Amino acid sequence: MSVDVGDPSVKRENIVPSPRERFTRVLSVLGSLQGYIGLILIVGFGILSKGDIFWNGINLTNAIGAFSSRGILAVGETLVILIAGIDLSVGSILGFCSMTAALLLTTRDMNPALIVLISMLVGAFFGFCNGAATSWLRIQSFVVTLAMLSIARGLDRELSNNVSVGTQVVLANGHLAPNSESFQLLGTPGHNLFNLQIPFIGQVGIYYPVLAFLIVCIIFQFILSRTRFGRHIYAIGGNETAARLSGVNVMLIKIAVFMLAGMLAGFAGPIDAAYSASADPLAGQSFELDAIAAAVIGGASLSGGKGTIIGTLVGALILTLLDNVLGLNAVSDNWQLVIKGLIVVVAVVLQRPGILTTTFAYVRSIIAKIRPERGGDKEV
Amino acid sequence: MKKLLLRTLTCGLFLSVLIALTSCGQGPATSSGSGNSGGGSKTFVVGYSQSNNAEPYRAQLNLQLQHYIQQYPDLKLLPITDAHQDSTTQVSQVQNFISQHVDVLIVSPNEPDPLTAPVQQACAQHIPVIILDRTVNTDCYTAFIGGDNVLIGEKAGEAAAKLLPNGGNVVELRGILSDQPQIDRDKGFRQGIASNPNIKIIADREAKWLKPNATTVMQQWLSQYPKIDLVYAENDPMALGAYLAATAAGRANQMKFIGTDGLAIPDGGIRAVQQGQLAATFVYPTGAKEAADYAEKIVHQQHVEHKLVLGTVAVTPDNAADLYNQYHLGG
Amino acid sequence: MMSAIAGAGDNKPQDNSESNGGIPLLEMVRITKSFPGVQALKEVSISVRAGEVRALLGENGAGKSTLMNILDGVFSEYGGEIRLDGHPVSIRSPRDAQKLGIAMIHQELNLVPELSVSDNIFLGRELRTPLGTIDLKRMQHKTAALLAELDVTISSTRPVRMARVAEQQLIEVAKALSLNARILIMDEPTSALADAEVQRLFKVIRQLSARGVAILYISHRLEELQEIAHSVTVMRDGELIGTHALADVARADLIPMMVGRPLQEVFPKGESTVRRDQELLRVEHLSLSVDKGGSNRALHDLSFTVHAGEIIGFAGLMGAGRTEVLEAIFGVHPRRLLSGHVYVKGKLLDARSPRQAIRRGLAFVTEDRKSQSLVTILSVGFNITLAALRRFTRGMLVNQQQEQVAVVDAIHNLRIKTPGSTTMVNNLSGGNQQKVVLAKCLLTNPQVILMDEPTRGIDVGAKSEIYEQMSRLVSAGMGIIMVSSELPELLGMCDRILVLSDGRLTGEFQRGEVTQEMILEAATTQEVQAHVN
Question: Which of A295, C47, C265, C420 is the most exposed place for a label (fewest CB within 10 A)?
Fold first, then answer.
């Protein structure tokens, strides 16, 4: 368009995002404010009730580290939820890959780095099956991944013959085999990659699961916000028809997303095996529920098109720190389950746009009813 | 171009899966009851209904039962059924065995109440029933073979008392609270430590029989209690999970760990005692050998005890190596 | 129920408002409503008498829909007062409105497609037998009676999705009647109707008016208002501009009131810009078969050409296959259903997906922008660049600076009224949403733009802007294929008009040589026209 026939009343300066708008955009990447408020409340409660038993490097690392494999699953799950799908099989895939990792270590004495790589490929393969069935065969993702949940679990148990496999191969001289030794770095408690001094918290050991989780979050948030692939994901979840008519290769991207979810489950598998220094044929059972909960608390909408990885990170932190705080306060497991469920519902309700103004309006109207001499609202 | 990439990727993935799957193999191939009958003599059919193959203890039980029944050439074991911890499934599986008119029916009930009726049905059809490990609410069976969890708990308590002659702080890791074995072991343990009032259980939590759960709980205890002298866990995985946490905190040598189960597998309690991680564990007998023996006796109309309570064997650093070799079934 | 007044072929609106001795049936007094960041209504007051047909005019975003939504109980929070028969009433929920006898027929009909006609009419207030179960027979009986009144022939047990849009609309009217509505609000009722159906609707409106029902009629079709309305209320930017009896005001005066600025001409297409020597798109013997389970119409052996600088219009009745032509060219349908060839600038286009069509220089503005073209929960900026991200991507990364420049340009050049580029598309008015779609298409640098009902549901001001855009685009050398149900629009904008009937090409006319009657005749004929280039 060579001739400028723009409407003079629509000022160009107004179209370019103002600092306030840019701030809003950054904020939206960070996830909803309510999530952070919840996190601060939990941390506050922890500090109030347990002081520096809660707030110290070791406890925080333990708490986040224990949830890391689930957190990594949650990242993949967020991607699937963004395209308006759901993946119920990530827990089983993690279990299968955890067992694969343990077996590769003990029967083939494989290098841990190679183990992680193969584990990721295996996970990606399962993810590919999920994606292909959802995209090509057009079966709903709920159904496909429900089937895969069962299939992967069955294969896992068959692979292991229903027996757990330890990851600490002891040589004749009593020492651990070198690969077993380095496998511990993948997440066995007490084996940190290195140590750091962090202000306000003290000395913190950099624990691989936590590091891996954070790095995965950063990478995938970057992918979502800054790449074309990320845009296409939001478009498909927001309106699949519009995406398709805008030239987005919907089928390919759906398959890719499921593959990524599977790959992340594969990435988390060895972490899980290292944490227990063994792979259990039942590892990962119901992990997918925690993954979905973290994503939902973090603001992802199950109808697609809404959500961020950073939000999921906050959701994961909320879940695990809440577990930690309740555990330190010796709240029984039963009540922990109840509270966890309530948190999910409360978090979703609090994420509704305009919830704060609606609540204030409601409170005001109640006050107006109690105090009639103040009069009702004349203006909105 | 994109299609080629996709195909290469798929092949690569497929290969990785193959590599992964071929690294499998633990334990002998599951036998499908291939006992050949020796020249001319009758073969008796044995059916075993297992409550949950996924539990390592039960997986071991299965292996052992297959092994011991194979020693008897005239016994044939049908494929072991797995009820996946679901009582309803197990009821129909048991009824299936009844319709097949097995010569001996062995049942490890998932829960007592739902499985009572089918056991009675078997009884009504004059099928001999061996109840293995957990009970039912009827007396109409030929033999009950099982461990005594209260006794095991008590022995663990006594071992704890011996390890802490001057008393000390004990933390207890418990299985699923509603499981009968959990209730019994806990009860027994508290009786066992009663002899020394200076031994205090300062904390107990449910870790659901799972190793990673025990690790997390232990980490929280370690940050709250400066003095822990002994960890008692109602099964070995939980004990080992606690051990991992204590090692990470550098306090593993300040306390003793007692587990339960004593499975003779590379990842099990006996090896853990051998390697010095656990101070002691107690073999929870599978009863597989006894069940096989009883089955043989029953089909030959010989007398068997109505109730056979199996003792336990304490696994200590002295006997761990021998016990491992004794119980280990190869693979 | 038919009053004698409405018959006798009299097409002028009757004045039936004397029933209440002067007190208006409906008064909305100083209504105010604001949304986050937007003041939608500023102290608007109207009053309507029983039996009056009041037209509501205004550009999209003027506030007409908001005002009517308040009356219908959609919003529980607003300022001002509503009075019926002089008494103040509180309308805070649709149920309140229903109880007071107010019914609204939305532009997007509120029917449940899978339920039957009678189920829809009695939705929420099903009739019960003494036993407590649903009394299907009684409901169907009543429904049949209502439908007969309105001359609707569909059976009351059929699922609503089997009725044509025109009939669905009348079903909504029947629903309102069964609720004993005293005030009926109709939002763009004729935008999806053919002429004969419009007349049928008008007949019904006159009947209702004769019975004392007040009708509030939102429409952009100024020509229709003369036929049906008694009076008109004009709104602009959330304010009331004025209410006049229709007899007192000329059409030429209405538009400036709505738009606030004088408009030269509605159809700005001036000199012909057609370059006959440059062929952009050529379609040869295109046929589309019906997909099993699909809902597309068949096409038979279509051939035509689009040149640079040309606007081709496709006319025809609903269901003639006009949308399918565009979809077939754009690669929306599975390849196996198509036969024939499409050439873009001489090269064969084997479009298996919209992606390929876009890459070869085609763009598609769909009929239903909200469900097919826009991701409504995301921002204006996101939507505008969605189809052209390739241009701003290096490697895998999107260059957000470059992107922002393009977005700002697009908003500016197309005069999209939006608080900013990060505004959610859902919050824009229909006309501006359509402009976002157009911006999205233009950003892909298309050669040929396929437009399906590009000005549906858009006010006069925005329409005129879109026509201007179209003219500018073809002057720059692009080609446009436009499907439209508004004959004046086709006659005013197109260089050539092709007519479809039942999937076949039945007429081709040059600009200036064609009338509405000729088009209609071709649209209803079965004779196939030979291809004229």
Answer: C265
A82 phi, psi to nearest 5 deg: -60, -35
CATH hierarchy code of domain C25-101+182-262: 3.40.50.300
Are B244 and A125 within 8 A, CB to CB?
no
DSSP state of A136: T
The alpha-carbon gap from C79 to the nearest alpha carbon of chain A, in Å, equals: 5
Q: What is the pLDDT of residues A59-76, one digit of tens each?
A: 888 899 999 999 999 999
Cβ of C404 and A17 within 8 Å? yes
All residue ranges of chain C with pLDDT < 70 are 1-21, 37, 59-61, 191-192, 220, 251-252, 255-256, 258-271, 292-295, 318-319, 524-533
How is residue C194 written in tokens? Answer: 């053919």
Give the separation between CA A211 and CA A227, rounded to whole angstroms.
23
Residue A15: which of C36, C375, C411 has the nearest Cβ? C411
Asked, for residue A336, whether it belongs to a domain, the answer is: no
Chain B contact present for A166, CB below 8 A: yes
Choose among B13, B56, B266: nearest Cβ to A121: B13
Q: How many domains does chain A have?
A: 1
CB < 8 Å to B203, chain A: 330
Query: What are C335's two structure tokens?
Result: 């390849």
Instruction: Tell me the Ramachandran region of residue B23: left when phi exceeds 0, alpha when psi lies from -120 to 50, beta otherwise.
Output: alpha
The domains located in chain B, with CATH, are 44-141 (3.40.50.2300), 149-283 (3.40.50.2300)
User: Is some CB atom of chain B closer than 8 A to the CB atom of A61?
Assistant: no
Angstrom distance (rounded) from CA C385 to CA A46: 46
Task: State the fold for domain C275-361+446-524.
Answer: Rossmann fold (3.40.50)
* Window 372-411 of C, Cβ < 8 Å to A: 372-378, 382, 386-387, 389-390, 393, 396-398, 400, 404, 407-408, 411
Give A32-57 pLDDT, tens digit per residue: 677 888 898 889 988 888 888 888 88
Task: Please judge whether B16 and A121 are an interchain contact, meaning their C-beta atoms are less than 8 angstroms apart.
Answer: yes
CB contact under 8 Å between C377 and A305, yes or no, is yes
Q: Do domains C25-101+182-262 and C275-361+446-524 have the same CATH topology?
A: yes
Instruction: Assess A121–B contact: CB distance below 8 Å, yes or no.
Output: yes
Per-residue pLDDT, averaged over B130-134, amounts to 90
Q: What is the pLDDT of residue C16?
A: 45
Q: How far is the C-alpha of A366 from the C-alpha of B7, rounded, in Å?
A: 64
pLDDT tens, position by position, C286-297 = 999 887 666 677
CB B258 within 8 A of CB B279: yes
Domain locations in chain C?
25-101+182-262, 108-178, 275-361+446-524
List chain A residues with CB under 8 Å of B240.
277-278
- Tell me the CATH number at A317: 1.10.3470
In a domain, A97, yes or no: yes
Q: Is the dihedral of CA B235, B238, B242, B243 positive or negative?
A: positive
In this complex, is the C-beta atom of A66 within 8 Å of any C-beta atom belonging to chain B?
yes
A21 falls within a domain: no
Which of A118, A252, A328 faces B19 most closely, judged by CB atoms? Answer: A118
Residue A379 burial (C-beta neighbours within 10 Å; 0-12, 13-18, 19+): exposed
Range of the domain at A201: 40-331
Instruction: Show residues of chain A in contact with B2, CB under 8 Å.
Output: 252
pLDDT in tens, B9-50: 666 677 777 766 555 444 333 333 333 444 456 889 999 999
pTM greater than 0.80: no
How far is CA C168 from its chain centroid? 15
Residues 298-337 of A with CB under 8 A from B: 323-324, 327-328, 330, 332-333
Question: What tokens appear for B284 in the block?
Answer: 């929870």
CA distances from B92 to B80, B89, B114, B144, C10 (A): 14, 5, 11, 21, 80
